User: Fold these one by one.
Assistant:
Number 1:
Amino acid sequence: MTDFNWCHGPNCHTHHTVDRVRGVKGSKVLRTRKVKLNQWNKDSFYSKFCSNSCYNEFANKYANQIVAIAPRTECLETPIEDPKRTKHSNPYHNWYETEIKVDETRQS
Ligand SMILES: [Zn+2]
């Protein structure tokens, strides 16, 4: 079992950073980063991607295939109580807050 994944960013190996430079003089390359597995990233996509930009590049390139895993063909709804709007004020200004509470009695 390995303790790392290669970054899945489709362009990881093209980003110009010195930590990606590998190889001997005269035949240097930019190489895909390794992502070390640890207790913080083991259950998240951060175990597969070295950065948010690599994750975004993957998601943008493969978005249609990703959503095909679990297509959303209709909207979802969360039952809520009627929202309560409350006025607040201090010596400088007034503002309103609207409280939105989930209606637990209508949960399926
Ligand atoms: Zn990467």
Note: The first strand starts at residue 4 and ends at 6.
Number 2:
Amino acid sequence: MSGEFTTIEDARDRLARVGYLADEPASLVSFLAGRLGKPVLVEGPAGVGKTELAKAVSRATGRRLIRLQCYEGLDEAKALYEWNYRKQLLRIQTEAADTGWQEVKDDIFGEEFMLARPLLTAITAEEPVVLLIDEIDKTDQEFEALLLEVLSDFQISIPELGVVEARTRPLVLLTSNNSRELTEALKRRCLYLWLDYPDIERELEIVHLHAPELDQSVARKLVEVIHMVRSLDLKKPPSIAESIDWARALLLLGAEDVDQAVLEKTMSIIVKHRTDLDLVAERVGVKLGDGLFGRQAG
Ligand SMILES: Nc1ncnc2c1ncn2[C@@H]1O[C@H](COP(=O)(O)OP(=O)(O)OP(=O)(O)O)[C@@H](O)[C@H]1O
Ligand SMILES: [Mg+2]
């Protein structure tokens, strides 16, 4: 089944069928976004499934995914459209010398000479799409202002061509790692979803989905260790992405338990800072060695 989500449960079930286990808030905003025609701003730490949610919504609704990856210095020309200068130049060169300027001008500022970038592509698509504006916090406030115009009016004005109106309404998801505070103006126009690290049971389901062959008791211990590691004061706590990588690695290594030796050997898959490695070895490794771990965590 594709098309819009009809209820919160429908959103949850169809997202699960395409491999995304959404909790209640995520199912709710996915449902409401389509119904209210509002963009969703998804915030949260790295690796908790922000980008994947947009991809899953695209798969579940059968809408094409158009992605705008943000970075510092991203501008109109890369986000909206730009003129294809080379092609324009070629056209000018091939015009007969006696062609009037007006004629040439009308010609070279037509759609044929335009390069559509993600935002323009998304609003002019024949079929409604999912538009992912990934890592919006990497851009500056000027870009945010530009985006507001598109997201509230669903139109883009091109001086040489006039106003291009949306043919269809894209379902818009913006993600942010919170590296800077976004403007109130942007937040006001969006539904808000805070994605956090999942609880043990949900993370276990996610790990199982991505590494189904891993023994359930190993998987559970792995997730418990991850949760314990997250509770330490680390520079960069392990994300869901790291849990999945670790599960796959343990599977390849044929590990039958997550004990001190296994942790020490494979720790660099889940923590990636020198000082974090030391801390985890000291605090979690020792606990696993003592056999105290299970009693405390479970
Ligand atoms: N609820 C979920 N169900 C299934 N898989 C998930 C879920 N949440 C996260 N994942 C998996 O975790 C990994 C990381 O997700 P993703 O790349 O979307 O994180 P992110 O929040 O966008 O991270 P970053 O901020 O680093 O871009 C992916 O492999 C994704 O499939
Ligand atoms: Mg991401």
Note: The beta strands are 40-43, 65-69, 81-83, 114-116, 130-134, 155-158, 162-165, 171-176, 191-194.
